[in-house]
Specification:
With 262 residues, the chain is α/β, with parallel strands linked by helices. The protein has a single domain, classed as Purple Acid Phosphatase, chain A, domain 2, CATH 3.60.21.10. A 6-stranded mixed beta sheet has the order 1-6-7-8-12-9, covered by helices on one side. Strands 5-4-3-2-13-14 form a 6-stranded mixed beta sheet, with helices on one face. Strands 10-11 form a two-stranded antiparallel sheet. A hairpin with a 4-residue loop joins strand 10 and strand 11. The relative contact order is 0.19.
């Protein structure tokens, strides 16, 4: 298992741009899991060139004896949850850029020092793209220089499952933006966990003492949607329902620009 701060590097010399979709909180095994929709989505990724996945954890529900959820309500045992999500991801394994574990996978880490998501990545022969807590991904577009003699853009993404509770979306936005401010040199922070799809675009002041300039540098904060219907634990705890809205991040290849859609 590689260290969190060991950079993951991807190069796309032949693509004008790429689109990244965050995939988190599918909770395979939960009675509320939207399996059919997830299958359709992964089929779309398989059939669409230039679409890639950032996996952010909680792919399986992974109820254990000591977890909040009940093992008796699961559709499948945890071993079969791993097997199913690995089977679903196999056709798009070449589209996976990164994977970090969520708190549901971390249950097994606490009990037995075993991460189901790491097992899934090993099954897909992608363990080099797995990071336990947070991952930093460098994406280099095009050749070293484009036809105009200028360097093609390089992007840096920080990917982590996320943390914290809170009923309202604003709490998640504030928490994620606050963490984003400490990530110098990162163009986008991508998280999951809250089950509330949201995008924000704060900025930082960048001081360049060599050019004597001060400029506002934007960065994106994207929190992925979940793949759970409302009900079960969420209804029991009177949590607010969230919409299911996919976000896409398009990274331009000629000019540095990130376009996020909901």
């Amino acid at each position: 298992m590689l260290q969190d701060f060991q950079m993951i590097v991807h190069k796309f010399p032949d693509r004008p741009d790429i689109t990244i979709v965050p995939l988190a909180d599918t909770h395979i095994g939960s009675p509320e899991c939207m399996e059919e929709e997830l299958i359709d989505f992964l089929k779309m990724v398989e059939e669409t060139p230039g679409v890639y996945l950032a996996i952010l954890g909680d792919l399986i529900d992974n109820c254990t004896r000591n977890s909040i959820g009940s093992v008796f309500t699961q559709r499948y045992r945890p071993a079969d949850q791993k097997k199913l999500i690995a089977k679903l991801l196999e056709p798009v394994r070449d589209r996976v850029l990164v994977a970090t574990q969520g708190n549901h996978e971390a249950r097994s880490m606490k009990d037995a020092d075993d991460c189901p998501l790491y097992d899934i990545m090993c099954k897909l022969d992608l363990e080099h793209l797995y990071r336990e807590n947070i991952a930093f991904v460098k994406i280099q577009m095009g050749d070293n220089r484009n036809g105009e003699g200028k360097r093609n853009p390089t992007y840096v993404l920080a990917c982590t499952h996320g943390t914290g509770g809170g009923m309202f979306t604003g709490g998640a936005v504030n928490r994620n933006e606050r963490f984003g401010y400490v990530l110098d040199g990162v163009d986008a922070l991508i998280t999951g966990h809250t089950h509330k799809p949201v995008v924000s675009a704060p900025g930082k002041l960048k001081v360049d003492p060599w050019r004597n300039t001060v400029q506002v540098v934007p960065f994106k904060v994207v929190t992925a949607t979940s793949w759970l219907e409302y009900g079960g634990y969420a209804a029991k705890k009177m949590l607010l329902p969230a919409t299911h809205t996919l976000q896409t991040m398009t990274l331009r290849g000629k000019k540095k620009e990130i376009i996020v859609t909901m």
